[in-house]
Every structure is written in structure tokens, then in C-alpha cells.
Design goal:
This protein is an all-alpha fold. The chain has helices spanning 2-12, 16-19, 30-37, 39-42, 66-69, 76-84, 100-107, 112-131, 137-142. Helix content is 49%, strand content 0%.
Length: 150
């Protein structure tokens, strides 16, 4: 089953630019971009539990704990580079997720203006991922129970 799903996904990746060419991605909010391009693997809440995640050979990361994994600081540049994917992030290892920078660039016209538009789209995704970060557990436990988010 994993092999079949992976082959289907790999077959769809080249067609992604065709699939969203007609949409003006600059009209999308960060959450709308995330829902459209990321939630299938990362889940609606970003916790790595999307419907495709269970068919992949590697664990899909919980995006809500990035700040926690980086000692309380959100690594916006690293998140940007990971989403963009056109520059290899050494510690990221092999690249199972699409190279969204290229996909957004080609969807916007594959020229200099499209590069600026792709950067805007990726920055919106980065800011959305920043917005879904969980508060560290110690801070959560100090909050009244009605304000806790785990």
C-alpha cells in the first residue's frame, strides 16, 4: 500500500503546477495555503497526522513543536528553506516533500516577478507555521486550565 501511495504521490508532483496554475496563490492566506498544500501530510492542525502521512515510509514531523525543538526560538529562516526546498538543508536529509519553491515559482510564471511572488507565498506559510506553535509545556502548566493548549 505504501508503494502504491508513494507512486501516486510521485506521479502527481510534476502535475502540481498544472493543478494550481489557474489559481492566484497570492490571494491565499497562510492557512489557506497550508490547507491546500501541506495538510495532506502534516494534518489540519500541523501535527503530522494528515491522511497521507500514514502511508509514508518516514514520520511526518509535528510542525506545532518546531519552536520547542529549537529551544524556544522559531527558526523562520530554516522553516523557509525547508518549505522552499531549492537549497538543500543539510540536516533535512532526503527530500520526501515537494520542492514548493519551484512549484510556486512555475505556477506564478517562472520569471523574476514569479520569484518574488513565490517568496511571498512561502513567507505566508512560514508565518502560519509560526502561528500554530504550541506554547512550551512549562508555560502551559502555569496557565489556568481553560487557556491550555496541548
Amino acid at each position: 500500500m505504501r508503494t502504491v501511495t508513494a507512486l501516486i504521490l510521485l506521479g502527481l508532483v510534476p502535475a502540481l503546477s498544472i493543478a494550481f496554475e489557474a489559481a492566484d496563490l497570492l490571494d491565499y492566506s497562510g492557512q489557506e495555503l497550508f490547507d491546500r498544500f501541506c495538510a495532506s501530510c502534516h494534518g489540519d492542525s500541523g501535527r503530522g497526522d494528515g491522511p497521507v502521512a500514514f502511508s509514508l515510509a518516514i514520520a511526518v514531523p509535528d510542525l506545532t513543536r518546531i519552536t520547542e525543538r529549537y529551544g524556544g526560538q522559531f527558526p523562520a529562516d530554516r522553516v523557509y528553506q525547508t518549505i522552499d526546498g531549492r537549497v538543500a538543508v543539510e540536516a533535512h536529509g532526503t527530500r520526501p516533500m515537494p520542492v514548493w519553491g519551484y512549484e510556486f515559482w512555475t505556477a506564478e510564471g517562472a520569471d523574476a516577478e514569479a520569484e518574488a511572488q513565490a517568496r511571498t507565498i512561502i513567507n505566508r506559510l512560514v508565518e502560519y507555521v509560526r502561528s500554530i506553535q504550541r506554547t512550551p509545556r512549562a508555560v502551559q502548566e502555569a496557565l489556568p486550565s481553560t487557556q491550555r493548549r496541548y
